[in-house]
Amino acid sequence: MDKIVFYSFACSVYTRILIKNHNNIKLPENIENNIIQEISKLSLKPLMLLMAVYIDNGVISGKTSNKRYEEFDRYSTCNDFFDVLDDCYPELIKKISYMITSKITGYLDLVERFENDKKQIKRELGFDADSISDCKIYVGLSDMHDGKENHILEYNGKKIVYKTRDSYNDLFWNGIINWVNEKSSDNLLFGVRTLNKQTYSWHEYISYSELHLEDKVQEYYYKIGCISFLAYLFDMTDLHMENIICSNKGPIVVDTETICQVIVDNKNYNEELSYFDRLLSGSLIKTELFPASIWTNKRKIDTSGICGRGGQIVESGKLELEFPYSDKINLNIVDGILESSNNIPKINGEFVNPKKYEKFVEKGFKETYDIFLNNKEEFTQYIEENEDLKKANIRVVFHDTQLYQDIIDFSTIPSNLTRQGLNRIYRIIEDLCEDKKEVLIGDIFKNLIVGNIPIYFGKVESKYVKTSTGEVCSEHNVKPISQVLNKIEKLSLRDMEFQRKLIELSLLNFREKYKNKEFSIKNTFKKNKPIKSSTIEKEVKMIVDKIRNRAFLSKNGYINWITIENNYPNWNIKFQDCSLYSGLSGNAILFAGCYKTFGDKEYLEVLLRIIKTIEKRLEFEEKSSSIFNGSLAVAYLYFFLYKQGFGETYYKKGVELLTQHERQILDNSDYDLLDGISGVLIILIQSYELQKDSYLLNLINKVSDKLLDHISIENDKTTWKGEAMLTGLAHGVAGVSYALIKLYELTGLTKYKNLAKNLVGYENFNFNREEGNWTDIVVDGKISREDTVIQWCHGAVGIGLARLKTNRTLNNMVDIDRALKAVIKMGMYKENDSICHGNIGNLSFLIEYYNQFKDEDIKDIIIYRLNEVLLENSGKYKSGLAKDFESVDFMSGLSGIGYEYLRLINKSLPLVSLLEM
């Protein structure tokens, strides 16, 4: 056993409680060691604090740091110290006593149960130990639930698993697998052999196996696909990497307690809008098998059953002792390393890349879906008559287990080991549970303060959820069995395709770093014929039809589209929000532009559906003053529609929305165009100029004062609230200077013009002559010497656009020429076609340049490259998100590409990427 901090104290506490409460029982050495380690962990923080107090007061006076630690550790075993400890931290001894009692009770139960069951265990699981004393016992392997934890026994190289719950779930799962196997010609699935004993169970131990051969790996992922359908059908969750084992029989699910999870609707959602959310929350993404989620993965690690693997860095995921065994002992929060798992096959000792086998996963899913689709009636009867399912205790998960663990850790802080501390923890749980019943709040509190992870169960034929003591603590909106039967009834080819698409999306590869390809000017450019308007019109309509065909429609006229977000190492898969960058506002702008250009009422119909959906979503979406990524994007959409002739109503709606967002606008702590107050200012100024509304002018003054108050320029350093500002349009000072010139043009005040000049000077100080481009600035203010980026969001394209639009005031021709050279030389061939960081966005700068200066050479380059883009894509465009994914989003996908094409044939349409109206 590793050396334990405050070992003497831990042994003393253990002995005292053992003698007082447990007749000084003798436990196996590894269980005793586990208990002593747990005591040390629970008491570490208060003992560190008390040691410092005793040293300061002269009670401990060793000559060296280590001697003082050793003296305190010895002193902590005396009766006087225990009296002080009990007075200061009364909850600590209670926690320790509960833990010891639970461990001892668990061990005694294990011994008795093994003795009673050993013959049956030998017969059914092939584990032939005669006595538990002959076995090695592994402890501390699972969360503690209701004072109980699982164990692994090992004898003669063979292992079995002891679980402190019944295994009706596992029996049901094995039955389903057998049913599927009977209907399938090959590729048999396997479950875990189980011995159910009503209140506990024994399971075979599944060992990891390398598969060695490519065809075996392909078969493995085919079976993963089969399992993914079963998990989807029965609304399983928690199929993360620890619960899938790669065995010589294929993938084995080793924990099935979360079958039949009820999809709980958010009561704040409109019934029709929740249709979109139910599509995802009831999809196979919920199973956690796939490296994607429908919520933000804040831990930034992939724990999915298919792709999750050990070795990932867990940011701030570990407490590390500094200077242990001395009075300088300290706890630091450091990055942790995710432990290895057994879910990914190996060939020749190397893990395979699961994403390479996506088509096999899809095939397994589809073929298993077909089995159930063709046998609905038979399988429905099988479910309705299944006794194992009726008896199963279905675990109900109210909160993330990691959140519970965080509160348990928080409860060991010295100030929380008191009565006042308990009250503090109770209030945290109340806030966590919101409108949940008092019974649930009380049960979570009761469990967490003694180190238990709360656990709740229901039955498939009941709406009620109960605590481990049988008390009703919550109620579902539907019986789990009804939800499963309804899902079976609604199995269809359309649903199969939707779920298959989700598999495809979840296993998309992230784009690799792209090296800019150099563009050479050729004499043949002038031979290119101008692209006909009819060609562009055809391309726009093709793009728009593609977007329209991918829409999801609810029965009451709402519309939405699936999109993905980069939440590395996972994808977030979701329906679009109200934003401009990747949401419904961007799509609305495209359809509005198409209607104004072509007059087709079908485009107007889609636009009105989008607006209806946006306005309903605004009722529950969190308010955000980000123009590109938040709900304030809708204000820009309204003013855009008003300016394009869709009616006075949209102007009024825009002003109303700005009024509703005033607090969020004034609280916005970002300065940039994308998410900050520079973007807000640009919208406010343009909307004010439409009708000279006095409220908008007042708000402009408030926001501009805030912008000026927080920018500081000293020599070559420019900061926002003390932090170095970036260069560039979307995230940096180019966007700010653009907003300031808008302010100057509105007010005539030279302070705005002068500040804009200074910001341009700061940005130009960071022009890298060697690269011919502007470099970004990292947070500490140092210039990044990475390869420079040439796109709208960073580098020459965005900066060039800002300089073009402020050229009349600032005379930016030197910078404009720099940007032009950079874009032509190294920005013409991007790995994608998006506005934000792709080919079309970069071409938009050249188009704006041509529109301003009528340079025929630039026109020739535009025609040449546009022709290439049209030919390269052949109707399928490369989005700015995942590799091989055609997004419908505005800034990173089809809506923006289609809109920029539309501007080539309708010159009245504004440049949305600069928030023009």
TrEMBL record:
One of its GO terms (molecular function) is metal ion binding. Keywords: Metal-binding, Zinc. Zn(2+) binds at C793, C836, H837. Residues 89-456 form the Lantibiotic biosynthesis protein dehydration domain. GO terms for biological process: peptide modification. It comes from the Bacteria. It holds the Pfam family LANC_like. One of its GO terms (cellular component) is plasma membrane. This is Nisin biosynthesis protein nisC. It comes from Peptoniphilus lacrimalis.
